[in-house]
Amino acid sequence: MIVTKTREEIELMRESALIVSKTLGVLAKEIKPGVTTLQLDKIAEEHIRDHGAEPGFLGLYDFPNTLCMSPNAQVVHGIPNGTPLVEGDIISIDCGALKNGFYGDHAYTFAVGEIDKETEKLLQVTKESLYVGIREFKLNNRVGDVGYAIQKHCEDHGYGVVRELVGHGLGRKMHEDPEMPNYGKRGRGKKFIEGMVVAIEPMINMGTHRIKQHRDGWTITTQDNKPSAHFEHDVAIVDGKPELLSTFAYIYESLNIESNEEDEFRQKALVI
Ligand code: MG
Ligand code: MG
Prior knowledge:
The chain has a single domain, classed as Creatine Amidinohydrolase, CATH 3.90.230.10. Helix content is about 30%, strand content about 25%. It is built from five helices and 15 strands. The strands form four sheets. The protein has a five-stranded antiparallel β-sheet. Strands 1, 2, 4 and 5 form a four-stranded antiparallel β-sheet that branches. Strand 14 and strand 15 form a beta hairpin. Helix 1 runs parallel beside helix 5 and helix 3 packs antiparallel against helix 4. The mean pLDDT is about 100. It binds magnesium ion (MG) (2 copies). The site of one magnesium ion has 5 residues, from strand 5. It is an enzyme of class 3 (hydrolase). Its cofactor is Co(2+); Zn(2+); Mn(2+); Fe(2+). Keywords: Aminopeptidase, Hydrolase, Metal-binding, Protease.
């Protein structure tokens, strides 16, 4: 059952989403060769708690940490550890926060120093596909419209779209209805309605879409060990249109990147 949110609830959800956005912005400054994912995890936990929120993933389904940290061929759900990042790595960071009873859930794949052109293209295309998908999240469209758009954009570049892991409704629970696959057929699936909030999150592999699960019960890796990227935003339907609740603006501020990619999905300008 889809649980829609009132305008007031959507504003509370924006608060939770922005705590995650700010956390990713803080991490963006710290990501460099030599830092460990466990160090980044501690920074994130402290930052979230300093903002009066709780880490959204810690303890959820018994996950042991604040961040899912998935380097290189890891797709999602990697567990932070003491291995230092090295120049040329990519690191997908997925972060959740819980405040006022509502979750934020938001992810970005970062480059560690200089990365090769092929991997840079994977990151760029995956992020583009996130916005291509968000554009379809509007009144009277359906789940399949978002999935179709993401899949087409990524497969046109020869990439693999992970099937087993999907986006989701978001609210008082981290995972609500509906499931939001990153593949699908136009006009199929549940219809979008005013007040829905979802996490849209393409998980895109450079090679095969196939994945494997590690023995730790969490970490998901590409079957061919080629890199994978993951970008995620929280989005509501407000006045029939997609309204972004999360933002990459804090990351871009940290990294000195100019971008207007989010402007079309915001009814009011974001003040950061
Ligand atoms: Mg997430
Ligand atoms: Mg999610």
